[in-house]
Amino acid sequence: MNPSRLALAILMIVPTVLFIAAAESAADTAPAAAASQGDKPAAPAATVPSEAAAPAQPALPLRTAEPALALPGTSAADQEATASILSAIRSDPGMAGADVSVNTDSGVVTLTGVVRNREQAALASAYANRPFGVLRVDNVLSIPAQ
């Protein structure tokens, strides 16, 4: 078997194995009692046990619903990115003496202001590239002549 066929076989088998493993580890949402009664005829309403009369527990989802992150380019993502960048810049001791303003518009971050050296400008750009929702960084920071 040549290497390309072996790689193709592996690429086809691995996702299948992962899917089966995930399906087996997922919680079963149907109660076992309901599955076992599928073979038996339904009991009359008067003889239904008290457990069946109790309200059924809601089925748990297989995955938890986490709040969705704001999509890049939205005003919520812009506000989150601006706050995150400003927080990182202000908390870094290497940015001491820098006066940096951050403006985010449709995922484009613009850094303006004055920094002491090129290292601070590069550090500010690095912080601006980190948050989710940032599509581009325009660094227009100025460095005073020395």
Largest sheet, order of strands side by side? 1-2-3
Query: Regions with pLDDT < 50 over 5+ consecutive residues?
Result: none
Give the rounded overall mean pLDDT.
Answer: 78
Helicity, in percent?
40-55%
Number of strands: 3
* DSSP helical segment count: 5
Supply the helix-strand structural class: alpha+beta
Q: What is the terminal separation in angstroms?
A: 67 Å
Q: Compute the gyration radius: what is it?
A: 29 Å
Shape call: elongated
Proportion of beta-strand residues? 5-15%
Order of helices and strands: HHHHEEHE
Sheet having the most strands: 3 strands, mixed
Q: How would you describe what is shown here?
A:
It is a single chain. The protein has 146 residues and is of the alpha+beta class. Helix content is 42%, strand content 14%. It is built from 5 helices and 3 strands. It has a 3-stranded mixed beta sheet with strand order 1-2-3. Strand 1 and strand 2 form a beta hairpin. Helix 4 packs antiparallel against helix 5. The longest helix has 23 residues. The mean pLDDT is 78.
